[in-house]
Amino acid sequence: MCAALKPVLYGYFRSSCSWRVRIAFALKGIEYDQFPVNLIKDGGQQLTDQYRKINPMQQVPAVCIDGITISQSLAIIQYIEETRPSGPHLLPQDPKKRAQVRVICDLITSGIQPLQNLHVLQKVGEGKAEWAKYFIERGFQALEQILVQSAGQYCVGDEISMADICLVPQVYNAARFKVDMTPFPTIKKINDTLLEVEAFKASHPSCQPDTPPDLQS
């Protein structure tokens, strides 16, 4: 049983999945505590028996909230949306726009990010940077086409949604793997706009409690 008074986020500063949840909390104005899980130190703190009890998949994030523990970032974000109606809606009210948001979220969270996460890259071994870059570029080619049709100021129209929450951390990953953003002007423009929003600034990997000093902003 999870009995914390405030939500507790188990995450890692550079985890894009953890960052999604931090953005959602920030947009909703929800106070929470962070419990860092270092994915590198000691061979990976997510692999301990203690953490396995929190998340059997031994991944981040996991969130302790309202007496339950939820893993998987989109499940966490949708729970926040459904139980915390104050603040901006993270899913549009219009069913067609809601479907567009979900398409973008699934493209990123199923079609791009899992192929370049830490565990996969460790298995790939030599050539892992080229592997990650290839799959990010492949996904961005599709995403750019979708956003040309759906975007306004943000991914779907002019309201921030779950799609934007997924987009920014993935563009951050693209920069880590030296993806040239020139062929993806719509993605770049939306990302640049979102990085000026306070919730995205406050949740950025460069300013988390577990951010190494040399990477802090």
TrEMBL record:
Cofactor(s) for this UniProt protein: glutathione
Chemical reaction(s) catalysed: 4-maleylacetoacetate = 4-fumarylacetoacetate; RX + glutathione = an S-substituted glutathione + a halide anion + H(+)
InterPro entries listed in its UniProt record: Glutathione-S-Trfase_C-like (IPR010987), Glutathione-S-Trfase_C_sf (IPR036282), Glutathione_S-Trfase (IPR040079), Glutathione_S-Trfase_N (IPR004045), GST_C (IPR004046), GST_Zeta (IPR005955), GST_Zeta_C (IPR034330), GST_Zeta_N (IPR034333)
Main subcellular localisation: cytoplasm
SUPFAM superfamilies xref list: GST C-terminal domain-like, Thioredoxin-like
A Gene Ontology cellular-component term: mitochondrion
Domain named GST N-terminal: residues: 5-88
Example of a GO MF term: glutathione transferase activity
PROSITE patterns: GST_CTER, GST_NTER
GO biological process: one example: L-tyrosine catabolic process
Keywords, ordered alphabetically: Cytoplasm, Isomerase, Phenylalanine catabolism, Transferase, Tyrosine catabolism
Source domain of life: Eukaryota
Family under the similarity heading: Belongs to the GST superfamily. Zeta family.
Protein name: Maleylacetoacetate isomerase
Organism in which the protein naturally occurs: Erpetoichthys calabaricus (Rope fish)
Gene assigned in the entry: GSTZ1
